[in-house]
């Protein structure tokens, strides 16, 4: 599990750091991103954006080391009317990075935008249960839900950072280019001072931060798309924390300046098969993929065993809800061919799969360039599918290009990627029909009904039954091909302290406690 992770590397920037006493700020923490971020948590779709937004934009609550919600911008809350009304009392000592006071009006503005599809929000599905949100006064916000919503507090602490109304009101969030790309204003422990596109984002400690005063003088997020380049910079001291891949471990295990830790990640790595493409619409075709791809070989060979074998989209990290009684589907190419035959795909004289019209089963699999584990996994998927007669072309792309030009507009056949989901079994926004994150365009009425009931049911035992049924449905009608549930492998330089025992996404919500010695 992740221990105290991180390290020091003092960069000389264009300003001088003044140290005074044991609590003095010291050090600039250096972290990698794989793409230029969108510094707006409501519209940001990608990992790089999520990481830096955790530091700039706090939410009403944040996860503690048990991944349970604890106060952040809200100092307390009550739940009334059978779970339909949440009333939050806000802190009265919070300022935006431009010095303006934070109030309940900012919270109302943020969630009005978050629930408006026209705003560009990526959080509409997460908060579709919100019927109304009002400012009772400057430090009190009341949410009224249209139905009970079990993961509400968890989702408030996941990606729902609060935005400044005084800077963004009256314009589409996607049009606020300067704010989103170079001059974001949040309330977090660090504020952006400089952005060099394609290179870095520099932040300094927020002297007006409402919580524990930051112990770091600042942070630098460096754009380094290639994982091997990240590891090289970690070893040289140019970076302080890198989440690495298993094939990087050998070069780091004997480095006296680096500590290696594991974190349980609420993640599933997967292949999206675009179900707008007639090839992948039949459930039998998608079911066959589970037998056609040797996922154990990927876990043992590419990941060196640092992953759990999958069943469906709910990972083993969700221990309370993961159904251990389901027998995982094992590699069985003969079974894959039989399912494909039932779907109308049979081998021709050359062993190539064709339909009744003689058309080949042909598609392109895209993957982000610069991460050997994902590139090798994609190659393994391609090779396994070719063995059963599919014509698969592998196309590596820069991550930002893949997300912007292919994934989000749905202009792809298949895509090897991953999801990091909240620490709750609710996957409605990912796999219910027409939802924000349903990039596979999966649609199944029974799945929709189960996912809806799951998020509206508070009783844990009943939720377990609902999600167990959903996991069983996925065995024969999978929304995606789940490849594995990874471990988060954290490589950090040894002189960083104050980091909670969490994965990097959630740990960054506590960055004011990080310290470089």
From TrEMBL:
This protein's name: Oligopeptide ABC transporter, periplasmic oligopeptide-binding protein OppA
Signal peptide: 1-24
Sorted UniProt keywords: Signal, Transport
Organism annotation: Deinococcus marmoris
A single GO cellular-component term on record: periplasmic space
Residue ranges constituting the Solute-binding protein family domain according to the UniProt record: 69-438
Gene Ontology MF, one: peptide transmembrane transporter activity
Highest taxon in the source lineage: Bacteria
Similarity section: Belongs to the bacterial solute-binding protein 5 family.
GO biological process: peptide transport
């Amino acid at each position: 599990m992740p221990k105290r992770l991180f390290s020091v590397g003092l960069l000389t920037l264009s300003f001088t750091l003044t140290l005074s006493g044991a609590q003095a700020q010291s050090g600039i923490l250096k972290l990698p991103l794989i793409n230029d971020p969108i510094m707006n948590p409501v519209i940001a779709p990608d990992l790089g954006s999520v990481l830096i937004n955790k530091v700039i934009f706090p939410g009403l609550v944040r996860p503690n080391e048990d991944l349970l919600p604890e106060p952040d911008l809200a100092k307390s809350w009550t739940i009334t009317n059978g779970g339909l009304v949440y009333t939050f009392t806000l802190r009265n000592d919070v300022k935006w990075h431009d010095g303006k006071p934070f109030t309940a009006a900012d919270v109302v503005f943020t969630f009005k935008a978050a629930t408006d599809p026209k705003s560009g929000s990526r959080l509409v599905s997460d908060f579709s249960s919100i019927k109304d949100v009002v400012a009772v006064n400057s430090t009190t916000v009341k949410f009224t839900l249209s139905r009970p919503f079990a993961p509400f507090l968890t989702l408030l602490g996941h990606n729902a950072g609060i935005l400044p109304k005084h800077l963004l009101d009256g314009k589409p969030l996607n049009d606020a280019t300067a704010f989103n790309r170079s001059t974001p204003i949040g309330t977090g422990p660090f504020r952006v001072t400089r952005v060099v596109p394609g290179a870095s984002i520099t932040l300094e400690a927020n002297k007006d931060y409402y919580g524990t005063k930051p112990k770091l003088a600042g942070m630098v997020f460096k754009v380094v798309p290639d994982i091997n380049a990240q590891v090289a910079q970690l070893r040289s001291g140019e970076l302080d924390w890198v989440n690495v891949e298993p094939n990087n471990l050998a070069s780091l295990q004997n480095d006296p300046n680096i500590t290696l830790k594991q974190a349980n990640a609420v993640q599933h790595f997967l292949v999206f098969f675009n179900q707008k493409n007639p090839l992948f619409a039949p459930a039998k075709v998608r079911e066959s993929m589970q037998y056609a791809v040797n996922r154990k070989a990927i876990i043992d060979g590419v990941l060196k065993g640092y992953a759990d074998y999958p069943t469906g989209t709910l990972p083993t990290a969700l221990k309370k809800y993961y159904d251990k009684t389901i027998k995982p589907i094992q590699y069985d190419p003969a079974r894959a061919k039989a399912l494909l035959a039932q779907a109308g795909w049979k081998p021709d004289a050359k062993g190539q799969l064709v339909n009744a019209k003689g058309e080949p089963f042909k598609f392109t699999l895209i993957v982000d360039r610069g991460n050997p584990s994902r590139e090798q996994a994609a190659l393994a998927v391609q090779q396994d599918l070719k063995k059963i007669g599919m014509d698969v072309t592998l196309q590596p792309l820069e991550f930002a290009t893949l997300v912007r030009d292919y994934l989000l507009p749905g202009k792809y056949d298949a895509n090897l990627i991953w999801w990091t989901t909240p620490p709750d079994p609710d996957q409605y926004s990912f796999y219910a029909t027409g939802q924000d994150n349903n990039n596979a365009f999966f649609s199944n009425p029974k799945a929709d009904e189960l996912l809806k009931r799951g998020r509206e049911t508070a009783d844990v035992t009943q939720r377990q039954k609902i999600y167990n049924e959903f996991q069983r449905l996925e065995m024969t009608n999978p929304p995606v091909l789940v490849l594995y549930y990874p471990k988060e492998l954290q490589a950090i330089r040894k002189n960083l302290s104050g980091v909670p025992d969490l994965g990097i996404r959630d740990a960054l919500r506590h960055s004011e406690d990080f310290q470089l010695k």
